[in-house]
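The following block was generated as part of the benchmark described in Methods. Ligand: alpha-L-arabinofuranose.
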Amino acid sequence: MVNETVKAKMVIDKEFQISEIDPRVYGSFIEHLGRAVYGGIYEPEHPTADENGFRQDVMDLVKELQVPIVRYPGGNMVSAYNWEDGVGPKEDRPKRLELAWRVTETNQVGTNEFVDWAKAANTDVMMAINLGTRGIDAARNLLEYCNHPGGTYWSDLRKSHGYENPHNIKTWCLGNEMDGPWQVGQKTAYEYGRLASETAKAMRLVDPEIELVSCGSSNSNMPTFPNWEAETLEHTYEVADYISLHQYYGNRSGDTANYLAKSMDMEDFIQTVIATCDYIKAKKRSKKKMYLSFDEWNVWFHSNEQDKEIEPWTVAPPQLEDVYTFEDALLVGSMLNTMLRHSDRVKIACMAQLVNVIAPIMTENGGAAWKQTIFYPYYYTSVYGRGVALNPVVSSPKYDSKDFTDVPYLDSSVVYNEEKEELVVFATNRHLEKPLEVDIDVRSFEGFDVVEHVVLENEDAKAVNLAGQENVKPHANGESYVDDGKLTSVFPKFSWNMIRLQKKA
Ligand code: AHR
């Protein structure tokens, strides 16, 4: 019977703590790519633009997401980027061939403008340096320009550009995807490890307060994964604070059950990187723990074909403009769950990207800004997923798909916010036909009751949102109630859910 309910169980206990969640796990990414910057966050001619040219309609949506950190300026683009092109009087800035995406970069936005934008958006900057075509010198100069108070060549140059106070950017990426053959200045693991560790040394001499991210593999399918991690960490383990992970998924074969299980691949990826870090820790007899920065993650495949048609060397063409479906939003929800279940090691994560380019926020040049389907799980998890991640003990029926076995229909994460006396359950029901009725033991949360049960559901897996047409949006009519220490919830077939409980006054 199609509507018959499938049953699952969870035990949630205050004491089953994984870790305090680092809010930066809800970070994002803006690259000089396509219309992310030009026509995305920056469009001086737009009716909502402020005096700096920043679109306020986009700014409002970014603020709604409460994004704590944004990686910048790339991405592949950073590997051939001269940061000096993007500072100083705008009229003097050179137009350059941008090699990664084969477009023309006007440099009308650069480091200082992005810092201004980030400040206005209540977010921090995570700055990437060019270790493709450049190296130690450009990195230390940029850091001096950004973070040194004054009295030196580069810091005084910043002041002369109108920025009296240092930007104090704390988190820096030592290059981007340096294992990738597509990367300008690709390196072997040895070459990268040596360059990254010497660059880190110089950067720490300029500013000992910074945090550094060493480049991991471009994704878990790279032929050199996880040897790249092991070999590069031999050099960078003691100088870096994080190692990066990047991963994008797609449903190219149209197999939804298999697609929804892809967060299990992310789970394996995280586990392997942790194991590799800990192996190097043991080998080095180190006291230090390496943390993970999952600084590019999302769904990316819809726009692959149309991108092949883009005329090279144009300015801000519509590249990587994936229009996300309802099923994409469910996988995004599960990817967030996966990272929260690893919040003891995953301290930074960046949904790639933020505006127009594989993004939760889309814009029309000169027109509207709107929310893609994936906006919603990102929004709810970012806004309500603050506190301590709890380890839910889940017992769920499972299925097998093309690439995965024992896929639990119920995928979840749980967050307890002690200060707000709030317990939040995020859950995906991967069952395409049947609702999941879940008995959740919440006896350790005495006096807590349901405040809301938000559901993202849709009959059409391929439903999308377009400008002025929001076909996929959540409702708050989910079925959940607490009785005698037991939360009973029904997660509709093929849905993403958030249940929020609070202690009754
Ligand atoms: O986010 C799009 C691209 O994906 C980034 O530039 C690169 O780092 C990754 O391959």
